[in-house]
Write a structure and sequence with these properties.
Elements lengths: L18 H5 L5 H13 L2 H10 L6 H15 L4 H16 L2 E3 L5 E3 L3 H21 L6 H18 L10 H14 L5 H9 L14 H22 L2 H7 L7 H18 L2 H4 L1 H8 L19 H4 L2 H10 L1 H6 L9 H16 L6 E2 L1 H15 L3 H22 L7 E2 H7 L6 H14 L6 E2 L1 H10 L12 E2 H12 L16
Antiparallel strand pairs: 1-2, 3-4, 5-6
Helix pairs in contact: 2-6, 2-9, 6-7, 10-12, 16-23, 18-21, 19-20, 20-22, 22-24
């Protein structure tokens, strides 16, 4: 029996006793997520959505992190967390539509495309287990497949389904690889940029030159491992040759990840541990006020989602807290706004600001703060209004895009009503006791849960007016703090 199946069975197909619950919390699940994203990107609808609407071009690591976090929420022990995440995904996907470079329409909510996403996760999980030397006997494989069927049914209850039997699934999978997948731009961007932009581990964050040198060697090797694990027909279609020795390297990588889960302490091999080290903004799914592993009373579990949102909302305090430096003026202010444009606003990395960039910002905020439908709708509406204001003031040629120079020249005067409404939405979701003040508790809770760091004392309180003022300064690019990297610019 496989390591993943060691937990036994459970009446809940996605509960703590499921194989998926165990797998999505192991470090080696990162191999599954990475490989699956490449297979997804080769699907024409998904590839087009990634290129035109996603942040994968500019922030591939952040996109991978969000994929992992979402998968963990979808198998959370609390069924209410799963339902909330499924509803969030449905709202997110419904907003991503358009046409690709060939004029073909795409829709991220398309059931066929969403079924392919889950199919790639299942097939990549099976590939990981087999390359790791894990035995997946008939009953174990059937059980794993049933869990992925339940996963898709939760995510898309009225849409696509996986094939009813494994035999039919493998025929379906082969036909999609042979007849449906394409040599998309998104695939090559992912392979080129994902490992090239991997964030530095803690010990090397103060040594960027050392990390850059190490990444220059490890990045191509990691990409080659992913390529070697892809189906041969797809590799040929993508023009990706398998380099000599790569297959041996691939087996060694997969075997070592399995060995690590057996010989190292569990805390060291949890995906939460690794993701937090590489990305301090990653937030594992646990009650923030209780030590890891402490059971949460049922009466408090219903509040977990809300409390998690409160703690993450504190991130905005850090984002909007300026460095102890005087605000830039004159030419320096333009340079500051230009940097803000390229590092924060240009989410899709195409050098221009348009609606997909602002939509990506809204999605990232809604995901991090775990907003409910009402607050998410308010946030998106405010961002949409801000985009209309920006177009009216800055898009002089009417091409639907704004350049960095145009934004920097006018950033100081862009404190319009829509931007103020964005700030007020964020204030409201943070001020849960409705006393019109954001206290230090949210700030401390954020660092204890998301950053594994206690910021110490400090009793600063922000009124609505002060919060809005700081937010406007932040969005104009006049106030810079390294904190915003954790929300928007983290690779």
């Amino acid at each position: 029996m496989s390591d993943a199946a060691a937990a036994g069975t459970d009446a809940d197909p996605l509960g703590p006793g499921s194989m998926l619950y165990q797998l999505t919390r192991q470090t080696r699940w990162g191999l599954v997520a990475t490989r699956a994203i490449v297979l997804e990107a080769a699907h024409p609808q998904i590839g087009a959505a990634l290129i035109t609407n996603s942040t994968f071009v500019a922030h591939p690591w952040r996109r991978l992190r969000n994929t992992v976090l979402s998968a963990q929420r979808m198998v959370d022990p609390d069924a209410r967390v799963r339902q909330r995440e499924a509803a969030r995904l449905n709202r997110l996907h419904a907003r991503i539509t358009g046409t690709d470079a060939e004029g073909r329409p795409f829709n991220a909510a398309d059931s066929e495309a969403r079924a392919w996403v889950v199919a790639t996760l299942f097939e990549s999980t099976v590939t990981m287990c087999r390359l790791s030397g894990e035995s997946l006997d008939g009953p174990t494989l059937d059980r794993l497949y049933a869990e992925f069927q339940s996963f898709l049914a939760l995510m898309d209850p009225y849409g696509g389904r996986l094939a009813p039997t494994l035999r039919e699934f493998w025929r379906y999978y082969a036909s999609v690889v042979e007849d449906r997948l394409e040599n998309t731009e998104a695939v090559h961007i992912i392979l080129d940029r994902l490992f090239a932009q991997a964030p530095a581990p803690p010990l090397l964050r103060d040594r960027p030159a050392v990390w850059a040198a190490g990444r220059a060697l490890a990045g191509p090797a990691a990409s080659a491992i992913v390529v070697a694990s892809l189906p041969e027909p797809l590799r040929a279609r993508l023009g990706l040759a398998e380099l000599p020795g790569t297959r041996t390297l691939m087996h060694a990588a997969y075997l070592s990840t399995r060995l690590a889960t057996r010989v190292l302490p569990e805390a060291w091999t949890r995906l939460d541990t690794v993701m937090t080290m590489l990305d301090p903004a990653y937030a594992p799914q646990r009650d923030g006020d209780a030590p890891a592993g402490t059971p949460v009373p049922e009466g408090l579990r219903a509040l977990t989602g809300l409390r998690r949102g409160v703690s993450k909302a504190g991130a905005l305090l850090r984002l909007l807290t300026p460095d102890p430096e005087a605000p830039a003026v004159g030419d320096a202010a333009v340079r500051s706004a230009s940097r803000f444009f390229s590092e924060v606003l240009d989410q899709t990395g195409d050098g221009h600001l348009d609606w997909p960039d602002l939509a990506a910002m809204a999605r990232e905020i809604a995901t991090r703060l775990d907003l409910d439908a009402r607050d998410e709708d308010r946030l998106f509406a405010a961002f949409a209004d801000w985009w209309r204001e920006l177009q009216k003031e800055l898009d002089t040629d009417g091409d639907g895009r704004i350049t960095g120079r145009e934004y920097a020249a006018a950033a100081a005067a862009l404190a319009g009503s829509a931007l103020i409404r964005i700030a007020e939405v964020l204030f409201d979701v943070t001020d849960t006791d409705d006393d019109q003040v954001i206290d230090a508790r949210e700030y401390r809770t954020l660092f204890r849960t998301a950053f594994d760091h206690d910021p110490g004392g400090g009793g600063e309180q922000l009124t609505r007016g002060e919060f809005v003022r700081r937010f406007l300064g932040f969005m104009a690019g006049r106030r810079h703090s390294g904190g915003y990297d954790q929300m928007f610019a983290q690779s």
